Amino acid sequence: LVVGLVELKCLPFLIDQFPRMTVSPELSCVRDLVTSAKKPALVTVPVVGTLHEIATKMVDNDHGAFPVVSHDKKQSLVGIVSRSTLLAVLNLCIHQLAATGTSNLVIQDPDPQLAPFEIASLAQITAMTSQSHKVLAQQVFDLVLHNKELYNRKWLNLSFYLNKSVFSVPETMSVKRAHTLVWSMGLRHVVVVDRLGTAKGVLTRKDLLPDAVDAMTRHRSSQDVIVV
Fold it and tell me: For the chain, where are the E strands, in sequence order?
């Protein structure tokens, strides 16, 4: 029954071992997977950003989660935040601003070290997600995107709402080792980072399916032509 449902719904179900392939997954690194031409460009959100900036990224991309990067030139990975959490926080900010003109989530200074910040209760955040996500999202995005001047001056600190324990792997890790990690830990995705900790891509179960890995390794092999 389980196998039938996996095939019917096309779920990215990983097996414990790779089948025989043209090129061994031990010889390929995860950087090749996340920089593949078929892979969408990485979309991140800053740990401190304007309401308009965050809403725009959510409108332009339908990802279920976004890597969160530091608010500096290094853009080091600091965690990951789900789409539903971002939507709930944005919605709460807008409701508070509309009702009182202020919000305990919004900061005036983009430097998180200088700006005072209050944490909204999880109960408040959860209550804002009671509506259908699609309906709620459209209402929030319409308000934010049509008031660019106002919401470009409202900064949001995501430090208290992101998951800081996100799994990350170095871009030089072999595909085989990454597959073992994701399969054994039951992960949905891991963030790929370079030696400086900068996010380079998100590796999902779908990327680690044998067909996807085999297609990528064969494509890379065809490009590795030695010119004499």
Answer: 45-46, 48-50, 65-69, 77-82, 106-107, 155-157, 168-170, 189-193, 199-204
